[in-house]
């Protein structure tokens, strides 16, 4: 029977209360060969045929998604691209657009099927608290400024990497840093295009 664990939300996202949410307890990641073996249970075709179909899907995504097309697979979901920008100088970043990830919106029928097959029970693990950084706030700000100095800007992933925080905790920590008038750090852009940059002295 699948299990779930309770994950505590980082402080700052709630009004002083400890709020937890369920998170599935995962054990392994099935590789391509294992997935193909599982698929043979549901399709009366050879492993080679299934491999060719999945490889053709990957090639189709590679060919058409960069041209502005989303890929929809009935019963599975819709794939779309997530873009970002990079560049050593902030003024050059819009000339360095790249694909940083793929968004996936599951088909409602897939979610319904998953829920029909699911019957979770709580794991015996204690509630997991957000990971705390071993760095002080001053040290975190200094590291952030170092990244900004080197690249011209800093992404949320950059900050999570240098602090050891998860993305949610990183976002909350950066809000506090930006709100401080002495941090020397501010933001530019919004949503998936949001970055942190050096604050100009007025």
Task: Give a short synopsis of this structure.
Helices cover 36% and strands 21% of the residues. It is an alpha+beta fold.
Protein architecture, described:
The structure is a single chain. The chain has 202 residues and is of the alpha+beta class. The protein folds into 2 domains: 3-122, HU Protein, Chain A (Irregular); 137-198, Arc Repressor Mutant, subunit A (Orthogonal Bundle), CATH 1.10.10. Helices cover 36% and strands 21% of the residues. It contains 6 helices and 8 strands. The chain has helices spanning 32-39, 47-64, 108-117, 137-151, 156-163, 167-179, and strands at residues 3-8, 20-24, 71-73, 77-85, 97-106, 121-122, 185-188, 195-198. The strands form 3 sheets. The chain has a 3-stranded mixed beta sheet, with no helix packed on it. Helix 4 packs across helix 5 and helix 5 crosses helix 6 (167-179).
Considering the chains and any ligands shown, give keywords for the structure.
single chain; about 200 residues; alpha+beta; HU Protein, Chain A; Arc Repressor Mutant, subunit A; 3-stranded mixed sheet
Overall residue-averaged pLDDT value: 85
- In the predicted model, the low-confidence regions spanning at least 5 consecutive residues are none
Which architecture of the largest domain would the CATH scheme give at its second level? Irregular
CATH topology-level fold name of the largest domain: HU Protein, Chain A
What's the order of the H and E elements? Answer: EEHHEEEHEHHHEE
Distance between the termini: 60 Å
CATH superfamily of the largest domain: IHF-like DNA-binding proteins
Number of domains: 2
Strand order of the largest sheet: 2-1-6
């Amino acid at each position: 029977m699948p299990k779930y664990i309770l994950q505590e939300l980082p402080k700052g996202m709630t009004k002083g209360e400890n709020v937890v949410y369920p998170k599935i307890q995962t054990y392994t990641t099935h590789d391509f060969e294992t997935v193909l073996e599982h698929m043979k249970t549901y399709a009366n075709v050879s492993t080679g045929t299934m491999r060719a179909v999945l490889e053709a899907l990957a090639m189709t995504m590679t060919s058409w998604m960069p041209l502005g097309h989303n890929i929809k697979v009935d019963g599975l979901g819709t794939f779309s691209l997530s873009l970002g920008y990079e560049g050593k100088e902030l003024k050059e970043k819009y000339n360095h657009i790249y694909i940083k990830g793929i968004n996936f919106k599951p088909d409602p029928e897939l979610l319904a099927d998953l829920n029909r097959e699911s019957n979770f029970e709580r794991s015996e693990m204690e509630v997991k608290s957000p990971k705390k950084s071993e760095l002080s706030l001053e040290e975190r700000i200094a590291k952030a400024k170092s990244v900004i100095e080197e690249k011209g800007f800093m992404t949320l992933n950059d900050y999570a990497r240098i602090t050891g925080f998860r993305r949610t905790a990183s976002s909350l920590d950066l809000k506090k840093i930006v709100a401080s008038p002495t941090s020397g750090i501010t933001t530019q852009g919004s949503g998936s295009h949001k970055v942190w940059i050096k604050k100009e002295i007025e």
